[in-house]
Amino acid sequence: MLEVHSPSSAPVSSAQTAQIQAGPISSGAATTKPASRYHVSLAVDDSEIREAQRLRHQVFVGEMGARLTTVLPGHDIDLYDPFCDHLLVRDLASGDVVGTYRILPPDAAKRIGSYYSEQEFDFTRLHDLRPRMAELGRSCVHRDHRSGGVIARLWMGLAEYLTRNGCEYIVGCASIGMADGGQVAASVYRQVSASHMAPVEWRATPRYRLPVESLDDGQMATLPPLIKGYTRSGGMVCGEPAWDPDFNTADLLMLLPLAQLNRSYARRFGA
Predict the structure, then answer these.
(1) How far apart are CA 14 and CA 91, in angstroms?
(2) Above 90 in pLDDT, residue 260?
């Protein structure tokens, strides 16, 4: 069971994260399936957070070519990290962290004054959701472990964490690489917006809008795994994509009611 305490009234430090008890995910159906090669838990100290930050740097900078400013070479660190809980997936064979997600709970977002995604989107219409809305970010999986098992473990851990902390909504950016100039991003947005567009009262305007109308060449690009995860779980896109110059990605702001996520996993795992 992933035991999660309510976020404290101060930023998460090494002492405070140590209060979060980490353990394997509990699931009613998990006991009927073969044991997973992966273990999901929350980071309990600074050394585990550093493992997540090293993986993020490896993926975002090493693979994607992101231009990030960091205080520690080889680590992706920003000012939101101390306010977040960090979900880790380990490969039981090697002990390495092979997947991570960071979670900014609503109380912590209030203390820091914003959600990370507000750097890219205007959250005015999401104001009423703030007391019940957690933000997900910095999702990445090691290149040798992208078959789907790690993503499944991350989502199972997220569902339990969010339920235990009383969150009702998840918000976060899903990124699409721009190495092709944006055609894939435009195609993904066209497909997702056609069937999973949020109602107008939950729309968010990008601060640096990607001109999708001039980039869409009509191709049917494959949806990235993270966006598939959102949409299959009942998630919605909150409007047009923003361009993130630091990561050179097109970012879609996704919103997911937790009730939809719980129903999705109840169907999937027979809970």
Answers:
(1) 23
(2) no
Query: Is the per-residue pLDDT at 68 higher than 80?
Result: yes
Q: What six digits make up the tokens of 218? A: 């009509």
Residue with tokens 């960071």: 102
- Look at 15 and 192; give whichever has higher pLDDT: 192
The domains found in the chain, sorted by start residue, are 14-269 (3.40.630.30)
Instruction: State the pLDDT at residue 2.
Output: 56
Q: Are 145 and 97 in contact (CB under 8 A)?
A: no
- Asked if residue 165 lies in contact with residue 53, where contact means CB atoms within 8 angstroms, the answer is no
Q: How many CA atoms lie within 13 A of 220 on its CB side?
A: 1
Strands 133-141 and 169-177 come out as parallel
Is residue 251 within 8 Å of residue 145, measured between CB atoms? no
Say which residue, 68 or 32, is predicted with more confidence: 68
How large is the average pLDDT for residues 213-225?
89
What distance in Å separates the CA atoms of residue 176 and residue 184, rounded to the nearest whole number?
8
**Assigned token pair, 110:** 């209030």
Q: Using CA atoms, how far apart are residues 181 and 71, in angstroms rounded to an integer?
A: 30
Q: How far is CA 47 from CA 4, 51, 202, in A?
A: 19, 6, 38
